[in-house]
């Protein structure tokens, strides 16, 4: 018995429909739902500030909410693990920085992820730090701090935003170059560390300008130097550490977006495109400038090159300082 035309038509539709369905999924515009942006530090610090600025701008350009989720702990490792635990579908990305992408591999004997397997999307910003002390400490310059630390070995405590951060390694470089005995106290982000600096539980701290700047401006802490190569136009009266006697000292912080391996290229490309568009906006750049951030942007390959160069630089610093977390 030959099949009727209606039967043949039904069979044809049955064969074609799945293919069409697959095509519609493959060509669906990304994003179709909210995007989660994991920040591996506590709320209130520089990473959180940056992430929320970009999250708001990306939400407008993508037409979908970009939800910032803070996952602090273990020098940022917990946040990156949360990224890798999520589906690699482009709907979860992470804020990556010096710690999670460059230095943690040297500080932790068993890093729970391979930084080289993360997908760089785009660089976001860079900034510098300020070395500040509690106002009760009887020092008003870097040289006075060094003299005091040498006269009181082991007495001073240095807070940081966490192991592996520039807040931590800026201090380690200071210790290496001055040969002083200062105890490092890591926190889960800048905010609790700065609160303890004000309360004198720790006596000094290196921290990124967007976090520590308001404390300096309100005189809750005393600024001694900046970690950049040149003086900041925003803080022209604060000398560089190099000027203060530590020749060649320079530590800057940087950050960008990363994704899990296997993330669809269209998601990576779209995010890169939109971030670069955001960074071309004069109003957005003015926002960054007010917070002492400088824009990065560029291609994913540009961000990868930055990560590679900084990995070499900070690896050497960790080796010289002997810093370890476990």
Automatic annotation (TrEMBL):
<keyword id="KW-0732">Signal</keyword>
<dbReference type="InterPro" id="IPR005064">
    <property type="entry name" value="BUG"/>
</dbReference>
<dbReference type="Pfam" id="PF03401">
    <property type="entry name" value="TctC"/>
</dbReference>
<feature type="signal peptide">
    <location>
        <begin position="1"/>
        <end position="28"/>
    </location>
</feature>
<protein>
    <submittedName>
        <fullName>Tripartite tricarboxylate transporter substrate binding protein</fullName>
    </submittedName>
</protein>
<dbReference type="InterPro" id="IPR042100">
    <property type="entry name" value="Bug_dom1"/>
</dbReference>
<comment type="similarity">
    <text>Belongs to the UPF0065 (bug) family.</text>
</comment>
């Amino acid at each position: 018995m030959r099949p009727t035309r209606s039967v043949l038509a039904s069979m044809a539709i049955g064969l074609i429909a799945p293919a069409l369905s697959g095509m519609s999924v493959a060509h669906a515009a990304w994003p179709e739902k909210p995007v989660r942006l994991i920040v591996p530090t506590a709320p209130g610090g520089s990473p959180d500030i940056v992430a929320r600025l970009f999250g708001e701008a990306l939400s407008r350009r993508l037409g979908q909410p970009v939800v910032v989720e803070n996952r602090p702990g273990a020098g940022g490792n917990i946040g990156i693990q949360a990224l890798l635990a999520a589906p690699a579908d482009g709907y979860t990305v992470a804020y990556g920085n010096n710690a999670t992408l460059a230095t943690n591999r040297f500080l932790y004997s068993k890093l729970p992820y391979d930084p080289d397997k993360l997908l760089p999307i785009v660089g976001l910003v860079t900034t510098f730090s300020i070395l500040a002390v509690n106002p009760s400490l009887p020092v008003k310059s870097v040289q006075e701090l060094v003299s005091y630390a040498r006269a009181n070995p082991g007495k001073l405590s240095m807070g940081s935003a966490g192991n592996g951060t520039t807040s931590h390694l800026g201090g380690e470089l200071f210790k290496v170059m001055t040969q002083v005995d200062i105890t490092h106290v890591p926190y889960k982000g800048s905010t609790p560390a700065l609160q303890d600096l004000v309360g004198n539980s720790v006596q000094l701290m290196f921290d990124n300008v967007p976090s520590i700047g308001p404390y300096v401006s309100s005189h809750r802490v005393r600024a001694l130097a900046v970690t950049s190569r040149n003086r900041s136009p925003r803080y022209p009266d604060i000398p560089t550490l190099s000027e203060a006697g530590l020749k060649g000292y320079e530590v800057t912080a940087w950050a960008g977006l990363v994704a899990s391996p296997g993330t669809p290229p269209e998601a990576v490309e779209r995010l890169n495109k939109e971030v670069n568009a955001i960074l071309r906006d004069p109003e957005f750049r003015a926002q960054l400038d007010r917070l002492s951030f400088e824009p990065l942007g560029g291609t994913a390959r540009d961000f990868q090159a930055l990560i590679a160069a900084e990995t070499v630089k900070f690896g050497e610093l960790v080796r010289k300082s002997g810093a370890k977390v476990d």
